[in-house]
Amino acid sequence: MRTTRRSFLRLAGAGAAAATVRLDAAPAFAQASHAVKLGVLAIRAGIAAPVGAAGLRGTEWWLERVNRAGGILGRPVQLVLEEESSPKDTVERYRKLVLQDKVEAVLGGISTGVTLALGPVAEDLGTPWLSWDGTTQKGVEETMPNPRWAFKSVDNEVEAIVAGMLTPRYFRGIKTVAGIGNDYSYGHDCWQSYQTVLKRYVPDVKFVLELFPRLGVTDFTSHIAAIQQSKADLLMCSFWSGDATIIMKQAAAVGLFKTMKGVFTTAGGVHDSLKKDFTPEGLLLGYNTMYFDDPKGSPLLKQFVREYKAKYAEYPPYECDHAYFCAESYKAAVEKAAAGGTTWPERAAVVRALEGIEVESLSGRRSWRQDHVQMCNFYQGITTHRNSYDFVTIDPVEVVSTKVAMKPAGTKLFDWINSWKI
Amino acid sequence: MSGRFVLALALGATVLAPLVAPTYHVLLMLPFMAYAVALLGLNLLFGYTGLVSFGHALFLGVGAYTGAFLTSVFNVRSMETILAAAAALGALVAAPVGALCVRYVKIYFGMLTLAFGMVFYTFVLKFYRLTGGDEGMPFLRPALVGRSLEDLPKTDYLVGPYYYYSLAVLVLATLVMWRIVRSPFGLCLKTIRDNPTKAETLGIGVARYRWCAFVISAVYAAVGGALLGPPTGNVDPTLAYWTQSGNIVFMTLLGGFASFFGPVLGAFVFIYLQDWVMSVVPFWRLIFGAILAAIVIVAPGGLAGFWVRRPPVEASSP
Fold it and tell me: Which residue does chain A place closest to B22, by CA atoms?
């Protein structure tokens, strides 16, 4: 068809009119449908990479569910992933997420060495940051007691405190204890907290040995020899990564736990590598905030475990729960701040809504305390071989709330423990 | 394009960056400028003296921890004091370390510097009570030229006053290094690099000159380390780890150690390339390493080698 001047003008006019309509409609359309960007910081290399991967998987599972159900206030959710590495580099990635990618909130952060640096940056940039597993504690004391934008994980030493509470219940008559933990703040803080708590329950207990091998060490032969030599009644170990499996194997080789009780505060993080071949029954084992095989677990947990197993051929560790909770609580806070409306709330309103909010997470009901610290349950119990897996599980399952095992806001840890009435 | 024109263009762009570039990219310029200062010093040792140090993160760490101690323990907030103290401590640590290391050359020198670097790393990691161990120490916001600037939001502080302060330090460090390498001292270093035996016979105290170069390079690295602290706000042992030493050697190779500005260019390309690759691919280390290796293979003289005029090929004799 030949284009005449008249037909061209008619076409151009129609195009201009259409363009005007689109331009008018564009903001409303964008408001309703453009994706909500959430930044995610996950460790992807090194010894903590499996922990980062678990957090990311938990977040992705949440994302699929939420987007299938229509997103948040009708907007689909999109994740922008960056890596957690050194404090310097992670601070730069955090700034990129907020300043360059314009995310609405940042989820993630595992290493306290990193999150100590992230906290002030989050406060400066005025974007909500919900930490999976990192605190802003220096040692066992809080450095940011009144943050506005930073939401922090459970205090690092809670699992050691829970183990300290449960030790006298399951291992009566303990007189001497040896300890082994990684040579960094977590290992030292857990050991110190465990000793303080146990001393409250068993005043005459003696701590006869403490060992702090470097994180990443894979040969514990000499450490095990020293532990045997100490003739302690019980070994407390706060390993949380593959080294927990390794020490268990090497301890089994010399029959260490035939003569000694064992407390592994955090080894539940690598629970499905603790095979029955070398992991004895009768140890106290901690799973942090989620026990995948919880007999009282919710349908949500059971569905998650089933789908996680089908997808990754393994059973989920606790980091999935931290990550799921952070994402789910953010969604709930946005909806609460919108107060039934359809407009997207201000970030400040979302932060206010997060304070004290309680949602259903994989492990059950979890909440944010008013001072932006996670509240949840900790799962520990005695290892058993009576299950259908090739690794140990726990029975009975002890569930201890952070309401009793975590220092209240504004208190000093050891003052608080020493104030307990036992 | 003449070198001076390129330099003027780069300086002009750096001055204008906070006014025109996105905030995030301006923030990335801060570690670039800090590393650039450190690399000017490292290249005095590497490019001009012929000694490759695999332990210079030690001095980055000394500078950064000096700032952290002064601001968070002694409440000294003056950046000028911090830089002066970092330089002095850098020299103080470098004096004995250098005295031991410069007795050796090539791989032995490299391994010794690496060993001292790891000794310092272990020290800051293990002495929890003093250094905060793996949790590090806060580097509180320093005052610049007597102005506290506490009222400014941190990002505004960083992309405004702190940016231009870092740029001023970099320009000053460049001018001083320019004078050093063109002084008789600098010529002696080049002679030592090219032929230490001949230098010795000419009456140049080879060990003494190498030691001086080592101490000067340490001072530069310490100043660079002190500049790295405020943007992160926290100083931790990873800053002193051997991978940091590896990174700064690689930046030097990438930019070209044969050129005065090569390492500075290397720092710029390294930081922006890493930033880009990190966001694009999950296994960025693999890709980043491959890209860097490819650049080094294609440009063995470093990126600055592209600007250096090659000598004309001599006509082959009949």
Answer: A100
